[in-house]
Structure formats: C-alpha cells, structure tokens
Amino acid sequence: MTWKITVLVLSLIALFAINMNLEYFDKTPKKHILIIGTAKSGTTAVYKSVKDAIGENLTSYFEPNASDFNAALRSRAKQILVKITLIDRAQYKDLYDDIHHFDKKIMVIRDPRDILISNLLYTVRWMRFSKDPERLNIFLTALKEKEADPQSHSVLSLYQLRDRLESEVMQSWESPRSWQDEYNDYAIAIRMIQKNPDLHILRYEDYVDGKLEGLSTYLGLDIQGNADVSTLKEQHSIKKSLRNIARSKSYGNWKNWFTAQDVDAFRPLFEPLMTASGYSDDWTLNATPEIDPAKSSAYVTRIVSDTEITW
Fold it and tell me: For the whole model, what pTM was predicted?
C-alpha cells in the first residue's frame, strides 16, 4: 500500500512539474479580457472583433452562467475573453470586485436613446406573446403604422403596448422587461465607470465609425470593426440562442423614432446619465423622420421566426 501512495505522489509531482515547464516555455502574452455593457450596446460586435484579432489559443466565455464565469476567474489559461451584459448581473454576485481579476476591462457604452429603440424591437424575440400570432400581429401593425407615420405612435406607447401584450400571456411570477430596466442598467454602467477609472471606455458610435485605434493600443491587438456576429459559435454561454441578427449597425435612429412626448418623458431621466457618459444634451428630432421597415416590423418578424423558444 505504501509503495502505491509513493507512486501516486510522485506522479502528481511529475504532472505539476510538466505543467509548470509548459507554462514557462509558453511565451504567449497573458491576456485576460472582460467586455461589459448594457444589452444592445454593441458588446457582441466588439467581442467578435476582439476574438477575431486574438485568433487561436483562446478560451472564450460569451455571456456565461455563474459557474462558467467563476471558472474563467480561476482559469490559468494564457488568453481568456469574457463578455457579459448587465441584464444578467444578478448571477454575478461579486461583479464589482471580480472585474479586477482581468488584465483588460472594456466598457462598451452607447447613446441610451438608441438602446431604447433596439431593445424595444429585439426583446420581442424572447417574449411569450411573440408565439401568439394574434398578439404579435397587433404589435407589428403598430410598428407598420409608425413606419407610415412616425408621429402615429410614441416610443413610450409602443413599450406600453408591447408590455401589455406580454402581461396577458406571461406566467404569474414573471414581469415584462420594460424601458425602466434599460434605464437601471445604464445607470449601473455609469456607476461602474465612475468607480473603476481603469475601465477602457469604448463608444458604440466609435466602433461603427471604425475609430478603434485606442482599443487596439489598449489591447495590443489589431482590432477591426464591422464584425459578422451571425457566425458566433460558443461553448460557454447561457444564451438560449446564439443566432445573432444585426439590425442597423448605425446610430442616431432615435431622432426618427422619438416624438415630442418621448422627449418630455425620457429627457429628465436620461439627461444626467448622458452627461456623465459624455453624450450631448441635444434632443433635436429629425424634421422629416423616416423609419425603414427592414429595421422595424420586418426585423421583428425575422428574429421571431428565427428563434425557437420552449418555456
């Protein structure tokens, strides 16, 4: 029995020594990168661009569950890339402290008014009423009326319609995610920026415009924009579907969507957050607004038909 224990101990020592030698001879620079932001702020596109720039020998975690996130924190892999959104922050219990485990930390921010438009449309994908043809048609009809006459519905009223349709079919313990949740997530993002001066801030608008020199320098990588998120394939992810569908790849669309009612409703709340994140307090709407159906009703129809959900 004694000799068996001796052999086991020696084997473990040998494995440890081999592992240490492999790490010593592996000259791959250590890069543990975290990408964080609110939902629909552009984090997926940035993640894909960074992942493409790193290439091989990368361990990646795309919106991981709590277990996988903890595994990423403990991992001894040389190159790790993690992307999380603040919509899932409840499962990351010590997020404010855990971000300091990463060598590079990127906060992606976007004009919150554009985020409101993106989330209004995209989240229909996961809602129960989207699988009810009659209720879905009610929402799509309102979007088509908005396309024909941008003044016919405010963004606020479209949120209220969407949330009412969802409340009619959701389970008793559920509650629809609405624009107030987008406000809360954005406020938390600003708070994280203020408390973590070592965060690298990347504006979605700069990503769209290809202004990525600062990010490339920060990461020591050649980051390219306009990533094709539809090709994402991930092992460590909590997402129900990884079939990402880009909508506009642009910014400033809120100027076509918002009405005077929206400005009155949203400006008092979002203006302080916009100032804190460096966005101008200019709420001028387009004089002749236009809404492309391909980025509105047709987009919702497409993502709903492309998403298979079982509750």
Answer: 0.85
